[in-house]
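Deliverable D5.2: sample structural annotation.
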Amino acid sequence: MNTIHIDNNSSLTNIIISEDTNIFYTSTSSNITIEILNDCKVFEYIKDSNIEINYKMKSSLYLNRFVIDSSVKSIIDLDKEGIDLKYYYSNINILDNKYEITVNHNKKRTTSSVINHGINLKDSKLDYMVNGKVIKDANQVICNQDSKIILTNDNNCLIKPNLIIDNDDVIANHSSYIGYFKKDEIFYLKTRGINELDSEKLLVKSFLIGNMDISYEIRRIILENINSYWR
């Protein structure tokens, strides 16, 4: 397992990945290009940053991202026929931030599953722009996206799901939700003897890391961050 650290002192602009890798971005403004050469898993931890990341996929990728109070722009190019992108993004938002992802299906028989989960704290604004693009020559593509933002206060969050499809032989779907945890979920946990704060914390943990395929050590890091906001 490789580990890469990027901060304001880092000069990295291009990364080539051929095995499972963890990347930590902290307090940085960076523009990074990452090339995926072999099937692998990548975990990204992004905190207090404003970054743009361009993934060039020559092989299949399982990408997990955990983001705290950062603006992130991503372009992911599926550049080889038959490859697969599984993408899970989760973030805790405090200030006004924007998240934008564009998945470009540039070859036939490519598949993408993009899941975005955010929790917005205080009165800040969190914007999601989620783009799936399929070019005319890319047949038999599957392009799916699912985005949810959970609110803790009444505020003006936004999700823009866009599917730009130039081919008839495509399966493409999107769904979006902005709102609160369901009251019956909280009620159910309280009937099991769990107080309201701990019930909310359990739902937050499930929402942010439930679908991630990550190591025990990475899970511990994420849980420490969650616990710092839900004491």
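Annotation notes: The first strand starts at residue 2 and ends at 6. The CA atoms of residues 184 and 217 lie 32 Å apart.
The annotation will be released with the project's public dataset once the embargo ends.
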